Amino acid sequence: MKRLSDAPLLPVVLGFAGLVPFVGGALGLALGGQIALQAANALPVYAAVILSFLAGGRWAAELVIRADAPRPGVLILAVSVALAGWLAVLMQVWARPGLPLDLELAGWGVLIFGFALQYLWDRAAVRGATFPGWYLPLRLLLTVGAMLSLMLATFIRWSPTFSL
User: Fold this and answer.
1) How many structural domains are present in the chain?
2) Is 150 inside a domain boundary?
3) Can you list the positions of beta strands (E) in the chain?
């Protein structure tokens, strides 16, 4: 495995810039008040968009590498990851007190699981030489940052007494 220092600068900078809304969303939730309400809406939408972006990259790589016979499993998984992000947002929109399942909490869980799954899939792609070796340490750091932000957001939303 290559090191992150072997990566071209632009993907690293843009990747870490993409963490700003994750961290900002979690901090917004921690601040409480009106900003927390906005963050509770914006963060899961952004997370779903990023999951779709990552899955779309896998879809595109499959079509480029295997243009004549793309593997159905890869295409199905790419669409499934994107749809999982969309479903997580819907779950949070539909969340209402008194439902037998806390849909908001479940939605956060779907997003966290989606990022974990996407990382494992990307790890396999690096090992299979679909992506360059420097991509794995970058994806690891970005995935950890996104997942920690989502976990903090989940904790804050699930613990109504939490505040900074």
Assistant:
1) 1
2) yes
3) none
**What value does the mean pLDDT of the chain take?**
93
What pLDDT shows up at residue 162? 63
Give the separation between CA 24 and CA 28, rounded to whole angstroms: 6
Residue pair 51/85 in contact by the 8 Å Cβ criterion: yes
Query: Using CA atoms, how far apart are residues 54 and 137, in angstroms rounded to an integer?
Result: 15
Q: 2 lies in a domain?
A: no
* Residue 54 CB contacts under 8 Å (≥ 6 apart), including other chains: 81, 118, 122
- For residues 33 and 29, give the distance between their C-alpha atoms in angstroms, rounded to a whole number: 8
Cβ contact 105:134 at 8 Å: no
Residue 90 maps to a domain:
yes
Quickly count: other Cβ atoms within 10 Å of residue 89's Cβ: 19
| Per-residue pLDDT tens digits for 97-156 | 888 888 999 999 999 999 999 999 999 988 888 889 999 999 999 999 999 999 999 999
Instruction: Tell me if 4 is assigned to some domain.
Output: no
DSSP 123: H
Cα distances from 26 to residues 60, 99, 154, 161, in angstroms, run 31, 25, 9, 15
Name residue 65's amino acid. I
